[in-house]
Amino acid sequence: MQKPLIKPDIEAQLASALGRRDEVPNVELAKQIAQANDAASVTSLATVLQNGAKAVRQDAIKVFYEIGTRNPPLILSQLPVLLNILTSKNNRLVWGGMAAVATLSEPFPDKIFPHLNRILAAADAGSVIAKDRLIDILVALTGVTAYSNEIMPIIVARLQTSAVNQLPMYAEKVARLTLDHTHAAIIISTLESRMCEPMSPSKKKRLEKTIQSLSQSNH
Fold this sequence. Notes:
0% strand
């Protein structure tokens, strides 16, 4: 009889249960689950995420988004659990939940879009990393024509108010979209309006490069 690839006790395989302070066991577990397309382990992981102790839950959300980067369909059934995590008072769980949802946004935009208000609220209440993952989600959703007109004003608002430290990265991600002339002009104007703010020369250079790229691609 073939030995199962993954042991049934998911919690015992998480970093904290192994007395580890690094993420290597969590990543390795995610790789195994993703490769095996093991839905039963994902279900067990969701139970741990909802009911485990703090350290265990933090490990579990790490495993979730690592699975999502490798095999997004495998975690889709647990989207309700991931959305519930976004209301946690634990910032690690919130941004980890955002990261997991982000992995689903490009392959399954129709599943994510209906929950956009909930996701926006979580980002607003969350850490910088949660806000970073929100941009990934918004960019993925904007790639869908049916959603772009609704999402673009949200992206513009985020570019207007984001921390200067994050702005160049956000702008670069948005600039990778195929933008129509109107949307591109609005993005360019928004970024130009922020160029006068204090920022490091390297960040200013990145913004200038993004503005130039947007201008050239929309002539």
